[in-house]
Prior knowledge:
Belongs to the UbiA prenyltransferase family. The protein folds into 4 domains: 2-69; 72-117; 120-241, UbiA prenyltransferase (Tetracycline Repressor, domain 2, Orthogonal Bundle); 281-407. α2 (16-35) packs antiparallel against α3 (40-69) and α5 runs antiparallel to α6. It is mainly α. The chain has helices at 2-8, 16-35, 40-69, 74-117, 120-136, 146-173, 175-181, 186-189, 194-215, 218-235, 247-274, 283-302, 308-313, 319-323, 325-348, 353-375, 382-402. The termini are far apart. The radius of gyration is 44 Å and the shape is globular.
Amino acid sequence: MDSVLYGSLPKASSLTTGANFWTTKCRAHNYHASSYAPKASWHKWKFHKEYSVLRFRQSSLSHHYKGIGGGSTHQESNRRYVVKAASGQSFESEPQAFDQKSILDSVKNSLDAFYRFSRPHTVIGTALSIISVSLLAVEKLSDISPMFFTGVLEAVVAALFMNIYIVGLNQLSDVEIDKINKPYLPLASGEYSFGTGVTIVASFSVLSFWLCWIVGSWPLFWALFVSFVLGTAYSINVPLLRWKRFAVLAAMCILAVRAVIVQLAFFLHMQTHVYKRPAVFSRPLIFATAFMSFFSVVIALFKDIPDIEGDKIFGIQSFSVRLGQKRVFWICVSLLEIAYGVALMVGAASPCLWSKAITGAGHAVLASLLWYQAKSVDLNTKASITSFYMFIWKLFYAEYLLLPYVR
């Protein structure tokens, strides 16, 4: 009877302890049954009760383990559904958010690299100079018309394209030098490959001439063409060129573009092409050309002061290398102070009271700021010299804000 009853129970490994307990109880029952027959009915009732309890426990345990192991209890199914839904939502949304962030970061980094590649201080200087010189061609209030703004926009966009060509070509020619002097530039830092730089430079030069051809302005064409030739001769490393190696030739290139070409060509673009007037050289135009000649020489000299270390290594005989940083620094400051003194005299001789007041006060303030900043420069620190060089560009911008008031 013991073997029959034991065999009728489910063979679940989880009930081993229960099965041993049951075997012991059955043996005890047989012993007592043979010894005490009158108690057989009582033991039979007890046996059925214990058997029922064991079956109930086994069923509950089996049901519990099935639920844990992947069974289909309602509570566990709901729990798994909620977990799955939540995890599915997170796995679906997180990559999407990550992709959007990656795209935004990529666009931001690309714009930042191009911003540094275009040398923004030269871009701002080019745009301001063209706008300022164009205003010198305005003779009466009615000249400020849609035709004026169209002519200025054509000149600015074409010149900015050429500006990017010139500064980009300079970086392509100076990759190894810039790794020492300007490691933050995209070509020097490796953000741009050499092929990428060539593509950008070639594209912007073509765009500049293409826009000029559409506009059909000869003064604009000559401004771009001369800038293209001098910018190429200044930077490109081929026999008889790379004029930046020679201090005088380098200064003459910058002087010709910044002082002469920008003033005369863009003034004539507005005067002859936009307004259809005969070419004239007014008093304000002559002053602007003379003053910017001083300023262009200063920029040509000063730009090499922070770069003396790399120029020495690669044999660039700039004035800073030949004369020393301190001497060139004070030559630049003195030239600018002389230019401001001449501007004060020109302003004082103006027949217009408002021109006399604005140009006189403006140049006096700029001269004072220059001297104050120059006294605080630490010539032993590259960061201090570079900061002052950027300050000179700010004075350059300010001068173009004053030029339209010279009458």
